[in-house]
Amino acid sequence: ILMVDEKGKNMKCLTFFLMLPETVKNRSKKSSKKGSSSSSSSSKLPPVCYEIITLKTKKKKKMAADIFPRKKPASTNTTAVQQYHQQNLNNNNTIPAPNWQGLYPTIRERNAVMFNNDLMADVHFVVGPPGGTQRLPGHKYVLAVGSSVFHAMFYGELAEDKDEIRIPDVEPAAFLAMLKYIYCDEIDLAADTVLATLYAAKKYIVPHLARACVNFLETSLSAKNACVLLSQSCLFEEPDLTQRCWEVIDAQAELALKSEGFCDIDFQTLESILRRETLNAKEIVVFEAALNWAEVECQRQELMTTIENKRKVLGKALYLIRIPTMALDDFANGAAQSGILTLNETNDIFLWYTAAKKPELQFVSKPRKGLVPQRCHRFQSCAYRSNQWRYRGRCDSIQFAVDKRVFIAGFGLYGSSCGSAEYSAKIELKRQGVILGQNLSKYFSDGSSNTFPVWFEYPVQIEPDTFYTASVILDGNELSYFGQEGMTEVQCGKVTVQFQCSSDSTNGTGVQGGQIPELIFYA
Q1: Nearest-10 crossing angle of helices 226-236, 239-251
Q2: Mean per-residue pLDDT for 166-188?
Q3: What is the pTM of this model?
Q4: What string of DSSP letters covers 413-453?
Q5: Could you tell me the domains of the chain?
């Protein structure tokens, strides 16, 4: 027997002679019969038999890093499974070594290795529109466990027996995100693909992934994307997301209407926004937004962007704009000269403004209700003294946090305690040092202890459970009232507001006393 190590080197050579029954008989005859030649007896000997055996030498055991060679990553915390995930997002990898199953202790990790992997794949998907497709491998059992649609597709009564399935209505990145959830139990969402991922999750009935997409959209909701998300939430039948979108659009209507996303909405969503009673916007802003939408819609329909075509694509939605409720200056300098109205419509609206007997109009003539601002008052009393509260360009500041999303529209400030006076106020709202909103304006106080509102140009969105800093720098010659007996927590309707001192305050304002007695907000 020739023994060799794993590299093929001889370790030891042993020879065993196997005595067969016939040979034993011949040898016994040899001893009894003299004169028989040695050569004849030796010819009866059996040939030498040997076998090559691979020895397991006492060497260091090979680890995953040896079996799957890889470059050392920047962060040593990355596991082999995570690296396969990253590779599989770009390639259809196969496992290069045997016994890879032994490297992963849980079924979840072993399933994760199969994500976007051609190894044992029994179906392939060609995903994406023509010209932008990507071929992705799949494993019917894993997919059927993760989705009832895939179960019906592969194991139902009408199961498809195709090796390749085309899916032209789903983006490859979104389909990969869904597969990653099914295989790896991981949710990996991005702002630019979350809507497409939501569509894929809805199509293949993966409810937990769909819920995660909705939560992602709710947390990233802003005036810039609220109109587009409103359109999509109606399409996907997500009432909670729809309600959140309306909250943002109502409170920050002018920002939402001026956003690029507004021009991307469908006609049905346009009508629903123009009908909205609670839009917190000037009607001239609504009118201009509708014209911007009409211009883009003409391009989508491959029409010349003429005034006639703009009116054509707006259709009856034009009469949802409450033109008669505009300020006269806004109408005269804006809508009346836009060319979108007929001569008779322009004349009738001018008569509506000026004549005692008003003509009948097709336009809605009742002003929108808008939103009613709420006021959170943090002091239980106020006072004044002969030597305070004085302003010399110093900052009064306070920090606050809320338990629900709100939109800060402005601050209520104290005025003069020595008769009527005018103040110049620079108000500012910050989060972790980043300015979210600011405005410079003047307000007139009448000498009473009332508070006087100072507004931001646009309401500022405030997320829950995060402290924000409200600041004001007042410039005025007169002493003013100041708050006393401040509260650290105030319940204002359904919103709870917490207050704490701010390091930015250099004029004495804090939780217990000082300026900024009120936060004015929409909720």
Answers
A1: 160
A2: 94
A3: 0.74
A4: EE-BSSS-EEEEEEEEEEETTEEEEEEEEEEEE-SSS-EEE
A5: 80-220 (3.30.710.10), 234-354 (1.25.40), 374-522 (2.60.120.820)
